[in-house]
Model the fold of this input.
Amino acid sequence: MVQNADRKKAGRAVRREYPVVGVFKSIARILDRGRGPDKLAAWLGLRQDEVEAWAQGRPPEPSGREFYYNRFTIPKRDGRTREIDAPSDALKSMQRRVLHRLLNPLPAAAESTGFVRGRSVVHNAQPHTDQDVVINIDLENFFPSITAQQVRASLVACGWSNTSADILTNICTYQGRLPQGSPTSPPLSNMVARRLDARLAGLVKGYDGHYTRYADDMTFSFPAFGAALDWKASTAVKQARCKLLSMIQMIIEEEGFKIQRKKRIRIQRAHQRQTATGLVVNSRVNLPREFRRRIRAAEHREKLGKLSAEDKARLRGWQSWRAMVSHQGAQAASPP
Done:
């Protein structure tokens, strides 16, 4: 919940962080700057007393007990656990109204490929094909690292009044953070990260590079002979490379995010396997070789009648994934 004491601070953050970048101009035109709580209430089907309750950071009466979160953990691939805050049915219904009526129509940054309709990991990987250097950076605790103040500041910058921004923030955040498990967290995370995306895209453009972000997975790539950086050159250029990486890290931290230290910054040259969001991008977007071999082996076992029903279902999923990567990769690689 957004506390009253934080509102002036969040408002100052808007004026300080978004003075000239202009990444919110198109959004502001869509939302009609200055939209107030009456219009918001009409869009969401809220009564006046419910509007006032959400504006004050408390669930509506009579009890408010139906507006709660259920916290649990799920295992991650690296052996750790991920904490999920799942909203109740009543709260999720409210958040879905916000999602469909207010958030889905907003344009996403060109560099953002996660949680965006019509974009996928294939679209995220395509700009990084046939490059000399590919760099992978993962952000730490992506959703929980985004604060209610950042969400509110972004909503105000998009054109919502202070009261409307408070209502939306209180509906969509939990314990001062974006909850992992809410349907509104993905688009709100992209909204908060718009300035991050704009700054990083502008930085790498000066090096003839490319930048995309799929949720917390960031990918940068550079050609063999960039305008300001030759990755095969001598000590002076190595210093320039270190400066570039330092600037990337500085921008990430200035925008309120942190690099996941356990995975570190991964730099892949052309003679190595280069990946972006799990896909190989050395010459074209493709599945990793070991995964393709696994599919072929399973297909061979199926022909011999040695696959169980469960294994067949798993194989169908793999085949669908292969077909999607092949189809979208061919589409993305084709000239417009």
User: Anything to note?
Assistant: Residues 309-333 form the longest helix (25 residues). The two ends are 46 Å apart (CA to CA).
